[in-house]
């Protein structure tokens, strides 16, 4: 229903209204009223329509305002520039559009947290006259903002979180970002930014997360790259080339590196073993080559390792079996990053929402930054985050030039859930101790040169949801039992010597010739019977046709028919004379 306007009109001393997670459909506020309300939360409703133009006049003393997850459309009212005391504003996940009013940038100078994510705002942002001097976190992701990133945030000296992802920004990363000494979390993925690696960010000593993925950056990474506080580096889906700097893996706090879908070449640096805290390493779809270094086995806390679609050769290091790929050391730093903003909102107020203000003993704004990793499992890319990411452990070495046998030590990765060794040059058999991987959900060994029988113990992998051993040299009967009965013949195609279900190839070839001979004899006998039947039918048809033709010929009164009957009568006459003479004698 409608927002209870009477609640505001009849309660002039009311400080907070919390009506989130209801079924409100219409917001109509009292007019020509200056109310002292400080907290207003109507998030997660179904409110449709535009925001009342004079909302900033009706509620000039608002401190926290949450209109997120509704169906608002239209623009942000210019009167919101009158809310000089507003510290927390969340209008994310609506249908708001248009440009942000100038009065908003200059008037809401007390803003600490601003969330306008997932709307349809457009135009250029960050004008030079922006006056957001107290801003701590800014979320503008998922809109249609365009143009270069302006310099309006130069006055925001306390800015810690900046998320401009999934817009249409162009140009280069501005130089002023390197002068933001407190900037800790930078997300600009999914834009049209270009240019070399933003070296100005190397000056930031506080940068913890840097996500510039899915843009058009190019060039090489500076050899002296060294972010002392960096935890996550995401450069995937750009045009970077050259070698991976040795100094990158010397960062002590580094937990996630994603360099996929670039043009990096050369070897994996030997310093890889120094990244003792690294949980996720994604280097797929580059041009890396040489052997997989054994120092990679020193990543004692690794949970996801992707080296696929490169040019690695040699054998799979047997020491990979020493990696953790499990919950013992894969702890919760990847789940979220909690940031606390020390700001006093109200002396006696407790509030919990997407933005939290807690008053015991001080007031804070808490925002969570989820870590998202997309990984190829079960023949598709899935995005993992939160607790699901914490429970995802995978190794992907597919589409390289690896040779030799699958090391038996792979069977020691008891907690791994996804194993992809496809499209290599691996030989030998499948190790029987691979049955130790009880949590395995996806196993892909296709497009190799593996041979021998498929181990029957694979049928005991009850968690297996994707299984592919196609295009190898396996032979013998498929162990079609246990959990393997859930997979069809597509998991086995390209193995000429495999037999049994679910293929249509019999495993008893000696009976086949006898069956074929019997079938051929039956077909010949059937052909013989069919020929004799047609012979009898043909003879009968000829006899009947001849009789009918003769009968028709005699029925016509012609000289030939008269001659015929004369000859018949004469023959009968002679026959009778012969009988009489014979009777007399």
TrEMBL record:
Gene3D superfamilies for this protein: Ribonuclease Inhibitor
The UniProt record lists the keyword Zinc: no
Molecular functions (GO terms): kinase activity
The keyword Membrane is annotated on this UniProt entry: yes
Membrane-spanning segments: 534-556
UniProt entry keywords in alphabetical sequence: Kinase, Leucine-rich repeat, Membrane, Receptor, Repeat, Transferase, Transmembrane, Transmembrane helix
Domain of life: Eukaryota
Family: Belongs to the RLP family.
Protein's name according to its UniProt entry: LRR receptor-like serine/threonine-protein kinase GSO1
Originating organism: Noccaea caerulescens
Organism classification: Eukaryota, Viridiplantae, Streptophyta, Embryophyta, Tracheophyta
């Amino acid at each position: 229903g409608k927002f209870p306007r009477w609640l505001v009109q009849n309660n002039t001393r009311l400080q907070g209204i919390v009506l989130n997670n209801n079924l409100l459909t219409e917001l109509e506020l009292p007019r020509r009223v200056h109310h002292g309300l400080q907290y207003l939360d109507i998030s997660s409703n179904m409110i449709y329509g535009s925001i009342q133009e004079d909302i900033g006049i009706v509620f000039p003393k608002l401190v926290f305002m949450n209109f997120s997850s509704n169906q608002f459309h239209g623009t942000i009212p210019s009167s919101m520039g009158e809310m000089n005391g507003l510290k927390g504003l969340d209008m994310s996940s609506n249908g708001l559009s248009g440009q942000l009013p100038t009065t908003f940038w200059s008037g809401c100078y007390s803003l600490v947290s601003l969330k306008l994510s997932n709307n349809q705002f457009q135009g250029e942002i960050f004008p030079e006259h922006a006056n957001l001097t107290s801003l701590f976190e800014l979320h503008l992701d998922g809109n249609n903002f365009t143009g270069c990133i302006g310099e309006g945030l130069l006055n925001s000296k306390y800015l810690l979180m900046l998320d401009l992802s999934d817009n249409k920004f162009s140009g280069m990363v501005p130089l002023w970002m390197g002068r933001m000494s407190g900037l800790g979390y930078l997300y600009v993925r999914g834009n049209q930014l270009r240019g070399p690696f933003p070296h100005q960010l190397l000056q930031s000593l506080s940068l913890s997360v840097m996500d510039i993925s899915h843009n058009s950056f190019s060039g090489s990474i500076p050899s002296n790259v060294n972010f002392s506080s960096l935890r996550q580096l995401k450069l995937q889906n750009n045009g970077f080339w050259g070698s991976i700097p040795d100094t990158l893996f010397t960062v002590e706090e580094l937990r996630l590196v994603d360099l996929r879908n670039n043009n990096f070449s050369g070897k994996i640096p030997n310093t890889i073993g120094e990244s003792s805290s690294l949980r996720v390493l994604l280097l797929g779809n580059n041009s890396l080559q040489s052997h997989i270094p054994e120092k990679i086995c020193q990543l004692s806390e690794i949970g996801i390792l992707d080296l696929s679609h490169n040019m690695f050769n040699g054998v799979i290091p047997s020491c990979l079996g020493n990696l953790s790929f499990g919950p013992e050391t894969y702890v919760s730093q990847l789940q979220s990053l909690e940031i606390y903003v020390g700001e006093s909102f109200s002396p006696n107020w407790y509030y919990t929402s997407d933005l939290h203000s807690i008053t015991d003993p001080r007031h804070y704004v808490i925002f969570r930054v989820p870590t998202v990793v997309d990984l190829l499992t079960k023949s598709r890319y899935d995005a993992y985050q939160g607790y699901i990411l914490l429970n995802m452990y995978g190794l992907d070495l597919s589409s390289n030039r690896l040779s030799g046998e699958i090391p038996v030590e792979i069977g020691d990765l008891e907690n791994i859930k996804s194993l992809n060794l496809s499209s290599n040059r691996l030989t030998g058999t499948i190790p029987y101790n691979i049955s130790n991987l009880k949590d395995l959900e996806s196993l892909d060994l296709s497009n190799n040169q593996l041979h021998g029988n498929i181990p029957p113990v694979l049928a005991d992998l009850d968690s297996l949801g994707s299984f592919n051993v196609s295009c190898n040299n396996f032979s013998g009967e498929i162990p079609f039992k246990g959990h393997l009965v859930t997979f069809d013949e597509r998991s086995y195609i390209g193995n000429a010597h495999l037999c049994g279900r679910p293929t249509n190839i019999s495993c008893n070839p000696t009976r086949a010739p006898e069956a074929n001979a019997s079938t051929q004899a039956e077909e010949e006998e059937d052909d013989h019977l069919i020929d004799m039947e047609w012979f009898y039918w043909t003879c009968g048809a000829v006899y009947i046709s001849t009789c009918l033709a003769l009968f028709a010929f005699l029925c016509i009164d012609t000289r030939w028919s008269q001659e015929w009957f004369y000859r018949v009568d004469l023959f009968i006459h002679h026959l009778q004379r012969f009988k009489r003479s014979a009777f007399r004698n």
